[in-house]
Amino acid sequence: MALSASAVALPGVLVSTSAISDTPPTAKVISYRASSYKEDSLASEALLAGSPERYDIEIHQLRYSSPIGEKYSISLDSSYESMSGASPWYTVKSANGNTKVAMSGASIYEKRRDVTASVQRYYDRGNVGASFTISDENDYRSNSASVDGSFTLANDSTTLSLGIAHSDDDINPTDAALFNRIPSANKSTTSAFFSVTQILNQFSIIQTGVSSTRAGGYLTDPYKLSDHRPEERNQFTWTTSWRRYFREQRSAFHANYRFYDDDFGVRSHTIDFALHKSFSRSITLVPNVRYYQQQAADFFTPATDFARTMEFNSSDYRLSKYDALSAGLKFNVQLGDYTLVLSGERYRTSGSSNPAMIDFTRLSAGIDYTF
Amino acid sequence: MHRNLRISLLLSALAVMTACQFVPAYQRGDLARPEMAFDADPLGSKLNQHIYFSKEASTGGNGVAAGGCGCN
Fold it and tell me: Which domain range does residue A316 map to?
């Protein structure tokens, strides 16, 4: 028996979902999820102008996966998002030294659709796959493609995986003339990864991998005032995932760590844990906790640098130094061929010098049908 | 990130692999359980990674991918 394919992410790559399989899935599965994502409102004392209401997003996801003969499998993923709310426009230092945020005045209404088609070919000692993704918004379109493969060594316990992906994106900001935004721009992203998956013993498996990504083109946020970023970004990740099954407790423990570094100056650590606890043959509860910590980009400024004293500058809160802690709970109930899924997550941030930093709540409900 | 650090990280990770023991196929039942998968919930993972990609400065390395979007 061989191990699975890649599990280190790249843009456009959808990876194999089983820890151990070099055979196609044995059943067809249709999955649907409806989710609500809501950001907390901006604190009134931090609001300079505009609306304090942040993004409220509804997401619908549909997935179909199926074996095709004995050597192939396919999957189709699509999602549809509709979002409304205001977003940060610029920041200023007030007289008392606090940073205040000017938000976009009117509510923004946007929609996004994406579709991913994937095919996988299985061999005795590995598999190869390819996928293509289209993501479409009224002001942004992305086309991406990827290929990946894996090979299991003769010891039948070690699998090597690698892949490459490329994305071409077109940016066409709305109201470009009115707000002096760039009328259109492009960016492209190319990634490569390599990972090793290893069976440690009868109950444990580990996977570790590295990825390198180069983004080039227009990397500035066209909707923020006086935002100027380099036109190249090189990113690196090192990821390790560990799975341990506890037979007596009927529980699977998941631990994941990611180190991230890029030449914007951002460096981050992400660690998350989950416990898949089965209470019967049909009920599973999955609590999880995630901690994220990042350093600020070299050109981050808490207050927008209108005078442009530096060649590159951005007051985007996402480029600031901060910590984020989130906790979630998932509940699965299997009823014959159907599995009902309910989940929720609360995400809170701290330590940022930009008060626009977000906290959010996500709730999801869905169903899987296996046939 | 320094090249030497990258190499040392990879080598230290590979060193972990030497601590493994051979497990015959008939003893791999627990490893093959769905809840032991590196990505046990493709749609849930895809949504979560899309949200983190939109709201954090880091991306990649999480088992599923986000295509490009105007969210970041």
Answer: 29-370
Whether A229 has a pLDDT exceeding 60, the answer reads yes
Q: Which one of B37, B62, B69 has the shortest CB-CB distance to A258? A: B62
What total number of domains does chain A contain?
1
Task: Provide mean pLDDT across the span A267-282.
Answer: 94
User: Across the interface, do A294 and B41 touch by the CB < 8 Å criterion?
Assistant: no
Structure confidence by residue, pLDDT tens digits, A156-187: 889 999 999 999 999 998 887 888 888 999 99
pLDDT, position B64: 43
- Is residue A12 in some structural domain? no
Please tell me the pTM assigned to this model: 0.90
Read off the CATH number of the domain in which A33 is found: 2.40.160.40
| Chain-chain contact of B62 with A256 (C-beta, under 8 angstroms) | yes
> Between the CA atoms of B30, B32, B38 and B44, what dihedral angle is there, to the nearest 10 degrees?
-100
Of the candidates A63, A206, A294, the beta carbon closest to that of B58 is on A294
Query: Does residue A17 fall inside a structural domain?
Result: no
Give residue A10's identity as a one-letter amino acid code: L
β-sheet bridge partners, residue A223: none
